[in-house]
Design brief:
302 residues, 23-stranded mixed beta sheet, 3 helices, 23 strands, 12% helix
């Protein structure tokens, strides 16, 4: 036990010492591309932040900041030189790649690599701020990325291993695959598809259907229920709060093994049991399918 305490103390002291030696350095890049037609963008990165904003303009402005943690400026510059931001325009398509290039004759020490100290392979985060015309569709692939998108009239596709995703005022389909991290999308006019493992998910939708699957976290949905397609929500241990307009019409199919079902919406019950509720409200409309293995389900009105 005494040995473990001593080892823990040395470990903490090592981290504090290296952290004091390291500092943060930034390196800015900018590229402006003129366009004449609706645009698609593919962006790939490892770690950092991406902000995409739709503006009334005839060009794309890509601003990228490399954020390097290193023990001195020379070392930071060397690491920054090995983070390549490659922008490839091709007509109405732009590809943006964040490439971490190999640094030769350098140790692969875990601590150096993790903390960005001398001797590390290329290390650092990149923050993008991208301004685009409103008629833009974008696909972003990240590993540990914070993503924010607003004011676009195009489709969005996100593949992010962990981090967070926020979007607002989107007129197009939104597809998100993000196992871990918060997801918040507001004022969406388009179909929404989300696949997650553990996330706090909040949706405010004006038009379109929803197809959502997650294991744990929270799910809050507010939708106008304006779609010819059905709505599918499938969770394991998540409380689902699904809100819809007072005068909306449709059908409910709710299943849960051990959770509770509660509804503010007056419904005509077709069948009910401890685990399942089937009914309709109004005349016609889409069907809301909700399956929550152990979580509660609340159907609210607004």
């Amino acid at each position: 036990m005494r040995y473990l305490k001593t080892l823990s103390f040395i470990f903490a002291l090592l981290i504090m010492t290296i952290s004091l030696q390291a500092a943060e350095y930034t390196f800015e890049n900018q590229k402006i591309i003129d366009i004449t037609e609706p645009l698609t963008i593919d962006l790939t990165m490892f770690k950092g932040k991406v902000t995409v904003v739709g503006n009334q303009m005839d060009n794309v402005i890509i601003e990228a900041v490399k954020i390097i943690r290193a023990s001195n400026r020379d070392e930071a510059e060397e690491v920054a030189d090995h983070i390549e931001i490659k922008v490839t325009p091709d007509g109405s398509h732009i590809e943006i790649a964040t490439n971490y290039l190999k640094m030769i004759n350098r140790t692969k020490s875990f601590w150096n690599k993790f903390l960005g100290t001398s001797g590390a392979d290329a290390y650092g985060a990149v923050e993008y701020f991208i301004q685009v015309p409103p008629q833009t569709s974008i696909s972003i692939t990240g590993m540990e990325t914070e993503i924010e998108i607003s004011s676009l009239e195009g489709d969005i596709e996100i593949k992010n291993s962990s981090g967070s995703f926020k979007a607002e005022y989107i007129y197009g389909a939104v597809t998100v695959s993000q196992p871990i991290g918060d997801i918040a999308i507001d004022w969406i006019e388009g179909d929404i598809r989300i696949k997650s493992n553990s996330s706090k998910i909040r949706i405010k939708q004006v038009k379109g259907a929803i197809d959502l699957a997650t294991f744990s976290g929270e799910v809050h949905i507010e939708t106008e229920l304006d779609s010819p397609k059905d709505y599918f929500i499938e969770t394991t241990s998540v409380k689902v709060i699904f809100s819809l307009p007072t005068l909306s019409t449709g059908e409910l199919k709710i299943e849960t093994e051990t959770g509770k079902i509660a509804t503010e919406v007056p419904i005509v019950i077709k069948s009910v049991s401890r685990k399942k509720l089937v009914g309709k409200f109004g005349d016609g409309g889409p069907t809301i399918h909700i399956v929550s293995t152990t979580g509660d389900v609340d159907i609210n009105q607004f």
